Amino acid sequence: MKDYYKVLGVAPGAPTEVVKAAYRALMKIHHPDVGGDPQRAKEIEEAFRHLSAQPQPRRETDRQDTVEPPAPVRRRSDGIVVAGKYIEIAVFELFGNRVLSCPRECTFYRRKCRFKQVLSVESDDLLTFKATTLDIQVRNLTDNPQTVDFRHGRGVLVDQNGEFYQCHQVCAYQHPAKYKEAVVELFAGTQANIMLWFQQQPPGRYASRLVYKHRALVSGMRGDYWDQEILDVNLTGKGKLYLRGKK
User: What's domain 74-234's architecture?
Assistant: First the structure.
């Protein structure tokens, strides 16, 4: 049996991007149109097609070389805590469409506030705005630092109709000092209490799920690569519209 990795000059278990780059570089030299050897070009083409058609075995080989996370996936029956390979998310309290007062010393209260433009869709009062907040705790389950970032659509609330609401930043007047913001770096064995801010929900809507796509940098014997997992936290419990848990 041919060693297709040797034909392309790449290490066994090389990712698809490396295989494709090696194929393109070799074909620029050995393709018949540029004066190369047709037999050599045929071998390169055969090796590339074989390795491209079988990506799964190479991914499993890479995973065997990485350090396994210390905790498996765990789900509690009440749906409040979800643990993945890299982080664990625990939900404490969800407040839908909170009415928040703006302090008069805020320089934005006399004109349109940029945070109110993003979060509040119905409030016309200059001194108040509405938003949905979610108090969670995130714990790092690995021996490596993990960056948790709920912004830019990576963390969303999903209502009972399937519509989702993205997480946004809020001003320092409203964000409590005891909570971390939507992006935080967790070192090994650490955890953080985070308050997430979401857009005001229309009447009759309520949040049923929190979905977060976490991206982690994993170290293996053949180098570092990016992995990701999706954590889905059920917020409805046993027929409840939202949680009122105690920390």
Answer: Sandwich (2.60)
Tell me how far apart the alpha carbons of residues 38 and 60 are, in angstroms, rounded to a whole number. 34
pLDDT band at 1 (very low <50, low <70, confident <90, very high): low
Residue 159: which of 128, 200, 213 has the closest Cα? 200
Q: Would you tell me how many other CB atoms lie within 10 Å of the CB of residue 10?
A: 18
DSSP class of residue 45 equals H
Closest CA to 231 of 155, 158, 133: 155
Handedness of CA 177, 178, 179, 184 (dihedral sign): positive
Rounded to an integer, what distance in angstroms lies between the CA atom of residue 74 and that of residue 80?
11
What confidence tier does 54 reach under pLDDT thresholds 50, 70, 90? low
Q: In angstroms, rounded to a whole number, what is the distance separating the alpha carbons of residues 91 and 245?
A: 8
Cα Dmax for the chain:
79
Domain boundaries, the chain: 4-64, 74-234
Q: pTM value?
A: 0.62
Level-2 CATH architecture, domain 4-64: Orthogonal Bundle (1.10)
